[in-house]
Amino acid sequence: MQTFTTLLDPFPLETFLEKYWTREGLVIPGTDADRFGHLFDWESLNNYLNFYPLKFPEVRVSKSGQTLPEAKRPQELIEQCRAGGTLVVDRLHERVKAIAEWVAKLRIELGHRCQVNSYCSFPGHQGFSRHFDSHEVFILQLSGHKHWRVFSDTFVYPLAEHRSSQFTPPETDPYIDIILHPGDLLYIPRGHWHYAIAVDEPSLHLTLGIDGPNGIDFSDWLTRELQEFPQWRESLPLLNPDDRENCRKHLRNLVQNWMSLLELNELIDRYLDEQLLQGQPPVQFGFPAQMGYDIFPHGDRTQFYRPPQPVQISELTETDKYEIKTGGKKISLKGIEKTVLERIFAATEFDGLDVRKWLPGFDWETEIVPFLSRLVKAGILIVRSDRID
Q1: What angle do CA 53, 54, 57 make, to 5 degrees?
Q2: Where are the beta strands (DSSP E) in 108-267?
Q3: Quick one: which of 182, 230, 42 has its CA closest to 118?
């Protein structure tokens, strides 16, 4: 939990999880105004806007709780901001390298889906009316000052389909009423109402949204699993008054079957494994090595990189054969001990010399090179063609 712990620093992780997570908002003052600067700043925002297509609604402007019409030209976007709009850029975790790598680490540590948006606001204007989100929210203040007000929830644990506009905001005063400065962190649990206004200068912040699976997600997953069982695909008895008791009996039997399935640790473990392995790594491409060309530019000193993703190593029925699942990819390997595989997949960077140490007695050309080549071609390893230590 190193990345998440660093995000909360100096607030203790254990205290946060016990007292605040999903329950109560929290402000953590920053000890360094530039503590989040390695992720994003004004230059990063300008580079994104200048060199990437401005696709609506991924790049949009919001004012007083309303999304403004699509800006067809950059100047229109600028004018919308001058008129008091808040510039929103969605899904930076898919577009900015530093944020993508940071989010990938959080995804592994938390096991929950994470996304990052940026918000650029100007003094005295409110981009969004009082609302709540259906996911956990962390505000990382990058530049400027922003006045935040956070209120208690009125509907506990809302889902994505529960929109703020469907509910009445609380009449109580905010329990958090504070101006964030650069380096400050604000946590807002899902369902807690909030709004913010830039104070005396342009404000830039990142919003980290953490969206974890819930009981309904597990129920939906189980429903999909039930499609493999004939008794669940079987049609119900006739739905008329004369056959009502037969329908009751049929449905009661299905309920009992459901209960028995829920007691199987094997089924629950499979669900947990699938959740752990979800999510794509930020690095997917490694041309030309991924196509089988120039995989070992520096021989056994070639550097390899494994995107930090959870790995599942399962023993297959065939002796001495294992299946590797990671980052949405799957490959089977034979002839290598599981302890060696675990050592390889515990590392994120290593070279051919390291593998030779881990596989004593294996020939470099006839055994190790084919093994590493399979991992590279499968996209599980990336060749650092420009690096040699």
Answers
A1: 130
A2: 113-121, 136-143, 146-153, 176-180, 185-188, 192-198, 203-211
A3: 42
**H/E run at residue 222:** helix 215-226
Q: Which pLDDT belongs to residue 124?
A: 77
Amino acid sitting at position 194: H
Q: Judge whether 142 and 205 are in contact, CB under 8 Å.
A: yes
Amino acid at 290: Q
Tell me how far apart the alpha carbons of residues 361 and 118 are, in angstroms, rounded to a whole number: 52
Q: Which residue has the tokens 């925002």?
A: 45
pTM: 0.85
In sequence order, the 6+-apart residues with CB closer than 8 A to the CB of 314 are: 322, 323, 325
CA dihedral 374, 377, 378, 383 (to 10 degrees): 100
Higher pLDDT, 63 or 140: 140
Query: What are residue 195's DSSP bridge partners?
Result: 149
Beta strands in the chain (DSSP E): 26-28, 59-63, 66-67, 86-89, 113-121, 136-143, 146-153, 176-180, 185-188, 192-198, 203-211, 303-305, 311-315, 321-326, 329-334, 349-351, 382-384
Span 79-95, pLDDT tens digits: 999 999 999 999 999 98
- By three-state DSSP, how is residue 339 classified? helix
Nearest to 128 by CA among 74, 189, 169: 169
Q: What does DSSP say about strands 146-153 and 176-180: parallel, antiparallel, or unpaired? A: antiparallel
Closest CA to 102 of 308, 347, 349, 303: 308
* C-beta of residue 267 within 8 angstroms of C-beta of residue 225: yes
Residue with tokens 């819930």: 214
Looking at residue 282, its pLDDT comes to 67
Determine which of 109-118, 190-199, 212-221, 276-285 has the lowest per-residue pLDDT on average.
276-285
Nearest to 122 by CA among 184, 68, 67, 197: 197
314 three-state secondary structure: strand
